[in-house]
Amino acid sequence: MAFLPLDLLFRWLSGLFSIALIAGGIYILRLCYSGELINFPVDTWRERLWLIAGWGLLVWSIVGFLPIALLRRFGRDEPKMYRTVDATRISRPDGSEIHVEFYGSPDAPPLILTHGWGPNSMVWYYAKKQLGDRYRLILWDLPGLGKSTKPNNRDYSLEKYARDLEAVLGLVERPAVLLGHSMGGMILLTFCRLFPEQLGSRVAGLILVDTTYTNPLKTAIASPLLTALQKPLIEPLLHLTHWLAPIVWLLSGLGYLNGSMYLTTEISGFTGRETRGQLDFATRLGLMGNPGILVRGVMAMLHYDETATLPNIPIPVQVIVGRTDIATRFSAHQYMAEKIPDAELIVLRPAGHMGLVERNMQFAEAVRSFPIA
Question: Which of 229, 288, 309, 356 is the most exposed, having the fewest neighbouring CB atoms within 10 Å of its CB?
Answer without folding.
Answer: 288
